[in-house]
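Can anyone check this?
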Amino acid sequence: MENNVLGLVALAAGLIIGLGAVGACIGIGIMGSKYLEASARQPELMNALQTKMFLLAGLIDAAFLIGVGIAMMFAFANPFQS
């Protein structure tokens, strides 16, 4: 039973990190493409859009890193393990 729980925790941690990374990469990719499209249409707004894009990129990465932290907590300090 103990080995089975540890295996499932490792699988869950891998899924949290993997799916979080995929989601963050897709989100930043879509945001970057929309930024380039918007700055090509209205070049005078490039500086304001760039500031907002970097702010959102940080928030997207922060959400991913929170998921990594939760996965590491379950991997190394598992509260479900007795």
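Reply from J.R.: I decoded it. Helices lie at 2-41, 46-76.
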